[in-house]
Specification:
28% of the residues lie in helices and 28% in strands. It is α+β, with helices and mostly antiparallel strands. The model has no long low-confidence stretch (mean pLDDT 96). Bound molecules: flavin-adenine dinucleotide.
């Protein structure tokens, strides 16, 4: 009888960036027996990166994109496993309400996909919605769905849970270490640090979020850092805005929101105005976006408009042209792997993406097809 070794047995890996994607990838590499070190420029869950805060939505609502819906199902299961393993509170099942239009190409196809997947989703008439969620005025919407599965992941806590798991699996997290570039030399891959020193390993995974161009400028990846922000409102009545009575909601590109969290804050945001950002230059709140959200609240959630805006959390999205992720090998290298372009919706998939990137790193069959995440799709679509 011969024993089966994990695919990463006796190998080493460096992960550049300790956001949700990098931390989850490091955990998955460590599970394969690799000796893993995460190099994080600041600290994990820092305010300026995407992977932080009280909440990130986890929704199965992806229009007709059934692959994402299936991936969310798997990912949610994996987040629950992580919560059980670490004893941390990572997920609140608040349910997800979609306020849409019959012709928006998203709400009804999404309903069909979720229904076919066996998720607990229902279509609501306006009257049913008003009865179930009297906080919303829904007269302008004609396609409304409610899915009891989904809600919010507690983002910073999730990243810390991944750090717990990484430690338990023997991995190392080094904070305050900035990588300037990556390279492959023969059978080894490596990184050059800001102080000019080098580290090498069998594999390097780059998960630098909106800073991707600082680390691999030579690739000129089709990833655009843009500004993102969410607003927090206090002073609302808990009996109307706590999880259990108030769901996570989606209202097209205009707004999305969450029940009370943290110190009793209601959270609201929009897909934003896609203002390009330099991730190395801090910026303040986008007043135009805030005013648009206030107008939305007055119209659709009037009782929320009576609250007080207490905080605006500014951070960044790393957008690809099609808003699908990049999970691929560095062109021409078999030892450097890139996870990028999470386009403002990657957090919920974090723990699963870590598995997919680890599978790519060690040439395993991934749990989900990676074709739509390959870099080659951009060259195929050029010229159209
Ligand atoms: C306002 C906002 C709301 C969002 N809402 C949702 C949501 O509701 N649901 C959802 O699923 N997703 C949401 N997202 C998207 C989600 O948060 C991101 O897709 C996800 O967190 C991306 O993780 P990441 O690890 O790729 O990047 P990041 O979290 O940005 O991590 C990258 C890390 O790399 C480090 N790094 C960068 N350069 C270097 C270097 N040279 N050397 C060493 N380290 C480096 C950075 O310091 C950073 O910690 C939202 C994003 C924003 C900004």
């Amino acid at each position: 009888m011969h024993s089966v070794q994990p695919t990463g047995h006796n190998s080493s890996a460096l992960v550049v960036g300790g956001g949700v994607i990098g931390m989850a990838t490091a955990c998955a590499l460590a599970a394969r027996g690799a000796d893993v070190t995460v190099l994080e420029r600041y600290t994990i869950a820092h305010d300026w990166a995407s992977s932080h805060g009280y909440s990130r939505a986890i929704r199965h609502e992806y229009g007709a994109k059934a692959l994402y819906t299936k991936m969310v199902r798997r990912s949610l299961h994996m987040w629950k496993e992580l919560a059980a393993e670490t004893g941390r509170y990572l997920y609140t099942e608040a349910g997800v309400l979609t306020l849409g239009h019959a012709d928006d190409g998203y709400t009804l196809p999404g309903y069909q996909v979720m229904y076919d997947e066996g998720l607990p989703v229902v279509q609501l008439t306006r009257q049913q919605c008003l009865r179930a969620f009297p906080q919303f005025r829904v007269y302008e919407y004609d396609a409304i769905t409610y899915n009891a599965s989904g809600g919010m992941l507690h983002a910073s806590e999730c990243v810390h849970a991944l750090a717990d798991r990484l430690r338990a699996r023997g991995g190392t997290l080094r904070e305050g270490v900035r990588v300037s570039r990556v390279f492959q030399k023969g059978e080894r891959a490596g990184v050059v640090l800001q102080d000019g020193s080098q580290l090498t390993a069998d594999r390097v995974v780059v998960t630098a979020g909106p800073w991707i161009h600082d680390v691999v400028p030579e690739l000129a990846l089709p990833v655009r850092p843009v500004r993102g922000q969410v607003c927090y409102v206090e002073g609302l009545r808990p009996e109307f805005f706590n999880p259990g009575t108030f769901p996570v909601f989606l209202a097209g590109a205009e707004a999305y929101g969450f029940p009370m969290q943290g110190p009793g804050w209601f959270k609201i945001g929009s897909d934003g105005r896609s203002i390009p950002a330099n991730p190395n230059v801090p910026y303040g709140p986008d007043e135009e976006d805030i005013e648009a959200l206030q107008r939305f609240m007055l119209r659709v959630i009037p009782s929320a408009s009576r609250g007080k805006l207490v905080a605006v959390d500014c951070c960044m999205y790393d957008m690809t042209p099609d808003e699908d992720f990049i999970l691929d090998k560095y062109p021409g290298s078999d030892r450097i792997i890139i996870g990028s372009g999470f386009s403002g919706h990657g957090f919920k998939f974090g723990v699963l993406i870590g598995e997919l990137l680890a599978a790519l790193t060690f040439d395993e069959e991934p749990a989900f097809p990676l074709d739509s995440f390959r870099l080659s799709r951009f060259s195929q679509s050029s010229g159209h």
